[in-house]
Amino acid sequence: MAGSGSGLRKYLSRCDDVIDLGAHTIRLRIVWPAYPDYSIVVPIPMKGPRGPLTRGQLFIAIANQFLLYFEHAARNVGSAKGGVHPGFVDLDIGGQSKLRTQNIFIVSLVHAGSSIWQADVELEV
Questions:
Q1: Chain-centre distance for alpha carbon 86
Q2: Which of 9, 46, 97, 108 is least surrounded, with the fewest CB atoms within 10 Å of its CB?
C-alpha cells in the first residue's frame, strides 16, 4: 500500500530498506485494461534528497504516478482512439478522482527490459 509514515509499515515489510535497481532512474510503464490505447512511460529517479530511495518511497512514487495517469486519462480518454474498452468499463477509474495513494496497493514490480518497469496494482475503491 502506498502512504506515509507508520501506516505504510503495516502493509509493506522492510519499507525502510534501500532499493537498488541498477539505474539512477527507472522508467515506469503504466497501462490499464480500461484504456487499451492509452499508456505512458514516466521516469522515476531512484535517488531523493536524502539519498537512494527506500522501498516505501518507491512505492509512494509509483502510486502517485498511477494517480496522475488516472487523472490524465479522465480528461483525455474520451478523445483518445478507442476510448474506454467496452469489456472493462468497470475499470474506468478516470472519473473517480477521489483515489489517493492509500487506495493503491503495489502487488509487484516487474522488470520489462532495459530500464522499463511495470507495476501490478490493486485498487481499493
A1: 23
A2: 108
46-81 per-position pLDDT tens digit: 998 888 999 889 999 999 999 888 888 877 775 555
Task: Extract the C-alpha cell encoding 1.
Answer: 500500500
Per the CB < 8 A criterion, the answer to whether 80 and 38 are in contact is: yes
pTM of the complete model:
0.79
Cα radius of gyration rounded to whole Å, the chain: 15
Is residue 54 a contact partner of residue 16, using CB atoms and an 8 Å limit? yes
Grid cell in block for residue 57: 518511497
| DSSP at 101 | G
How many whole angstroms separate alpha carbon 58 and alpha carbon 60?
5
Grid cell locating 114: 532495459
Burial of 36 (0-12, 13-18, 19+ CB in 10 A): middle
The C-alpha cell at 10 is 503495516
| Element spanning 64, H or E | helix 55-76
Instruction: Provide the residue type at 78 as one letter.
Output: G
Q: Give the distance, in angstroms, between the CA of residue 24 and the centroid of all CA atoms in the same chain.
A: 18
